[in-house]
Amino acid sequence: GSDAILLGAETLRGLYPVETISTVGRICAEAEKVFNQDLYFKRTVKYVGEPMTHLESIASSAVRAAIKVKASVIICFTSSGRAARLIAKYRPTMPVLSVVIPRLKTNQLKWSFTGAFEARQSLIVRGLFPMLADPRHPVS
């Protein structure tokens, strides 16, 4: 149920760094095989409690619906990444594609697009695959 594993420098300085990473990968794969998604979902909903925020309610409902219809992917359009992270919090059985919509910002001297930072932040979340939308093709 964790998002990532951080190995210390001691692990990689040993004589067998490649074998170490391979072993950790196999352990993770085995752990994922016995992960009870249904139980995790119910516990997460119970932990969040009531009343849920609107965004939390939409996220949990999206995961529940995707599981019921056996969807192959959940696609979430976001500008901050928060909605996609909330969806991923419920550990759906399918990947979550987070399409980050860039926003145009200015400080009166320079124009820039935001979104790359938000997409990078999502890289650490389990099951979440961020993409940065092309700002030249506005969503209409």
Automatic annotation (TrEMBL):
Domain Pyruvate kinase C-terminal stretches: 56-134
GO molecular function, one term: magnesium ion binding
InterPro entries linked to this entry: Pyr_Knase, Pyrv_Knase_C, Pyrv_Knase_C_sf
Pfam families for this protein: PK_C
Protein name per its UniProtKB record: Pyruvate kinase C-terminal domain-containing protein
Provenance organism: Aegilops tauschii subsp. strangulata
